[in-house]
Amino acid sequence: MTINEITKSIISIVSEYLESQGTGSDIDVKTVLFGKNAVLDSMGLVNIVIDLESHFLDNDIEISLTSESAMSRKQSPFRTIATLAEFINEQIK
Amino acid sequence: MNLDFMLERFQSNLDMLAIISEDSSFTYATLLREISKANAHISDNVIPGSIVAIKADFSVESISFMIGLIQRDCILVPISHAVTNIDEFYQIAQIDYEIDLAENTPKILKAKYFDETKHNLLSKIKDTGNPGLILFSSGSTGKSKAALHDLVPMLEKYKLQRDSLRTISFLLFDHIGGFNTLFHVLSNSGTIVIPQVRTPEAICSLIEEHRVELLPTTPSFLNLMIISGVIQKYDLSSLKLITYGTEAMSESVLKRINQALPNVRFKQTYGLSELGIMRSKSKSDDSLWIKVGGEGFETKIIDDILFIKAKSAMLGYLNADSPFDSEGWFNTQDKVEIDGEWIKILGRVTDIINVGGQKVYPAEVEAVLQQMENVADVAVFSKTNPFMGSIVAARVSLIEDESLNDLKRRIREFCKNRLESYKIPAFVEIVDGVGISERFKKVRI
C-alpha cells in the first residue's frame, strides 16, 4: 500500500465520520485532525482510530495506532491527515 | 417444623394440582408421597443439619428432596445445569453430601469436605439448628459470591396466604427468583408448570397447552420472544401476568412486548440473592418506574444509590467480606432515579463504563440501539482504550445481513441526537446472537 492509498483511506474514513456527525467539510492532507482548530474532538479521534485499525485489518494489515510508541512521540502522529498517513506508512513498511 | 404450615396446606388441598412436568401431573397428595420417599432416603443417608448440594433442575423429585432436607434442618445448596464450576462451588459451600438426581435412583454421596472445619457462618447456623440455603450470585460481570441464608426468616413471608396463579418455573432452581416462585406457589396451593427447555417456542407452547397464567422471566428472554416471532403462533390468552427482573429492562423492549401482548399485565420484580425478593409494584404495564418494599424491607437512597435493610437478609458471604454496614444496610450498587415514592433502576454501578471520567450505563445505550431498524438485540460493555481509559462497545445481532461499516454509520447517525457523543459506541461488532447466559441475562464482558 502506498502512502497515497493510505492518505485516501484516511480521508474517506474521516469524511464519512464527519458526515455522520452532520459536520461534513472539505478534507485534505493538511486538515488538522486533533488539537487546536481541529475537525475532531476527543471522541471523534477515538472513533477514527478504531475505524482505521479495523479498515486496515480488513485488508489484512495489522496496525496499532495507540501503541506506547505512538502515544509517547514528541510530535503527535494524530495532528494532521499527513502526519497520520506518515505514521501508518512507517508501521506497515 | 419450619415447613409445617406448608405441609398443612398440602394436606387440605390433596386433590389440587401441584406440579405439571412433561406429560405428568402431580396432585398435592402425590407430592406428599414423593416427599415421604425423599425423606426415607434422607434419613438413611444424611445427618440432620448437614450441608447438602442438590444437583438438579426443577422436578417433583428435586422439589421433594428440597422440602425433605429443610425438614431435617439441612443447609441446601441447589446446583442447576447452568453451573459450570461445580467443584469450586462445592468447595466454597464445604458441602457434606451431594445428591444427584440425574439417574433413576437418587444417589447420595458423602463429599470430601465432610470432615472439614466449617466457615464460621456455617458453624453458626449449624449451632442454631435452623435450615439454611446457599445461593451463588450470578453477576453479568465478576466472580460468583456465595450467600448463606437462614431459611427461618426467609420462609416467614410465605406463611401469609396470598393468591397464586398457575406459574411456569422459568427462573432456575438455584436462583433466588426460582426459589421464590416455587415456595410462593406451593405455599398457596397453586400449580407449578416445569419447562424442560427454555426457548421462546417451548415456553409459549407450554403456556398454551397448560393454560399458564404467570410467566416470571427476564428482559433478555422477553426480547427473544419478540424477535423470534413466536408470540403470534400460540394461543397465549391464559396469560395474565408477566414479571421481569434480574437485569435492567429497556424501555423499547417493554413497549414492544406490551404491544405484542396487550391483555397481559407487566410487573417489574426486584430481588437479590443476598436479600430475597421484595414486593414490588410497577406504575403501569409499560413503565419502568416501580415501588419496592413490603413487610420486612426498608429502603433508603443515598447519592442515587439504593440501600436495603431486609429481615430476610443473608447471614453473609462464604467467600467475601460482609457487605452490610454496622446498621445492617446493604448497598445494592443499583443507581436509581427518584420521582416521589417511585424509583427507576438505571443499572449497576459496577457495570458503569467510565469514558474519560464520564459515566455511561450500558442499559441506557442498549435502550437507544434497540430502537434501531434491523437490530435484533444488543449488549453494551466496556472496552479499554488508551485515549479515554474505557470506551463504550456494542455487540449487535442483526435481523438481516448488513456490513459492519453500514451498521456503524447508522448507529452514529441514529445516536447523534439521542446520546451524548461519549455514550455512542465507538467499537461495534456484529455477532450471531448477543451473549445471553443460561440464566437469560445479558453477558457484559
Write the layout of secondary structure elements.
The complex is a heterodimer of chains A (93) and B (445).
Chain A: H1 3-20, H2 42-58, H3 68-71, H4 81-92
Chain B: H1 4-12, E1 17-21, E2 24-27, H2 28-45, E3 51-55, H3 60-71, E4 75-79, H4 86-93, E5 97-100, E6 107-110, H5 120-128, E7 132-136, E8 146-150, H6 151-156, E9 167-168, H7 176-187, E10 192-194, H8 200-210, E11 214-217, H9 219-228, E12 241-244, H10 251-260, E13 265-268, E14 271-272, E15 276-277, E16 279-282, E17 289-293, E18 297-302, E19 305-310, E20 316-317, E21 330-339, E22 342-348, E23 353-355, E24 358-360, H11 362-369, E25 375-385, E26 389-398, H12 404-416, E27 427-430
Parallel strand pairs in B: 1-10, 3-4, 3-5, 4-7, 9-10, 11-12, 12-13, 26-27
Antiparallel strand pairs in B: 1-2, 5-6, 7-8, 8-20, 14-15, 16-17, 17-22, 18-19, 19-21, 21-22, 23-24, 25-26
Helix pairs in contact in B: 2-3, 9-10
Short overview:
The complex is a heterodimer of chains A (93) and B (445). Chain A has 93 residues and is an all-alpha fold. In chain A, 55% of the residues lie in helices and 0% in strands.
